[in-house]
Amino acid sequence: MPLALFWGCAEEYYSLDDYSIVKKTDIHVHINQPNSAIAQQALEDNFRLINVNVDIYFPDYSIEVQREAAVAVKENFPENTAWLTAFSMAGWDNYDTWLENTLAYLDESFEQGAIGIKIWKNIGMEFQDEQGEFIMIDHPGFDPIFEYLIENNKPVLGHLGEPREAWLPLEEMKMHQGYFSRNPQYHMYLHPEYPSYESIMESRDNRLDKHPDLVFVGAHLGSMEWSLDVMSEHLDRYPNVAIEMAARMRHIYFEAKQDWEKTRDFFITYQDQLIYSTDLTENPGADPEQAAARAHSVWLQDWEFFVTNNTMEESGIDGEFSGLQLPVKVVNKLFSENAEKWFPPLNEL
Predict the structure, then answer these.
(1) Which of 48, 106, 20, 38 is nearest to 340 (CA)?
(2) Under 8 Å between Cβ of 19 and 300
(3) Which residue of 132, 230, 294, 296 sits 20 to 30 Å from the alpha carbon of 100, by its own alpha carbon?
């Protein structure tokens, strides 16, 4: 590791050549293929993975099917994988039965090795009760679930809301035109009767205020990808909360292009609350060579961005930008130590 002079003091920096040497963690992948090419590539690239279940409505990928796959992946790759379970909103209107079944399902999942849970954007953006009211994450009906998680020291990965661009017309989007053109059900501009971005963020904060001891990681930059200032305010307000960057690295690249020093300062200032992740996905039928190559390419590019000041380019970003060249101690937290802090069972891998 070379020594460099920065801000009047000696700092250590990694290089591209250190990539395979340093232990790293990606806390947000979706692997539903037991003989996972991504998990195998992760072994070669010195990555640990957290495989994430999600309450998404695809019959072939129910939470039960995802759980079965996650257990199989863990059995096949015990040295570098862990997994998060999820719970279904189906049956909510028969609340007492729903609660009993949900707690039982979580118990089963933790007995089978899950190290925490994922909650998804269908809470607040999709699921409605029999009266047509959207169920928000601060609904008191979730209180027993969060109390159970706190009592059992289980962390939550929370994908609540969408990029703020979801509330804009397609032609005004800079980052997410492709996704929302393919998924109009989540393009909130087309659904003005749905909850606002602000109301979803408020409901999340209400939940965090109610449970200050909850171990919580905001997925996808906590749906605050549009503003370093907003993310900073949130992390200041909730020092026991972290955020991860799955599928939002382009936003970070964009920020670096707009204001490199501010972006770098953000990662240094909040080095204890930021965790690396990607949202890589591998389902049955995926080409294993392509899945492995994609994972390696994404991981290596992000490593280059964080550890060097190389000039880089990215699809969807107009023009070049420079890597942040973060100090070794910050990179270690971003890629490993913070993951272990918020998901302690990773220390055993």
Answers:
(1) 48
(2) yes
(3) 132
Domain containing residue 255: 17-348
Q: Per-residue confidence at 6, pLDDT binned at 50, 70, 90?
A: very low
pLDDT tens for 259-296 read: 999 999 999 999 999 999 999 999 999 999 999 999 99
Hey, is 112 helix, strand or coil? Answer: coil
The SS3 call for residue 48 is strand
Asked if the structure places residue 253 within a domain, the reply is yes
CB 149 within 8 A of CB 157: no
DSSP string of 152-195, one letter each residue: TT--EEE--S--GGGGS-GGG-SS-HHHHHH-GGG-GGG-TTSP
pLDDT tens-digit map of 146-203:
999 999 999 999 999 999 999 999 999 998 999 999 999 999 999 999 999 999 999 9
Residue closest to 238 by CA, chosen among 131, 335, 342, 327: 342
In a domain, 95, yes or no: yes
User: What is the rounded distance in angstroms from the CA atom of residue 14 to the CA atom of residue 308?
Assistant: 8
Domain CATH for 74: 3.20.20.140
DSSP for 247-310, please give it: T-HHHHHHHHHH-HHHHHHHHHHTTTSEE----EEE-TT--HHHHHHHHHHHHHHHHHHHH---
In a domain, 7, yes or no: no
Residue 47 CA to its chain's centroid (Å)? 16
| CA separation for the pair 236, 239 (Å, rounded) | 6
User: Is residue 87 assigned to a domain?
Assistant: yes
DSSP 89: -
On average, the pLDDT of the chain sits at: 95
Total domain count for the chain?
Answer: 1
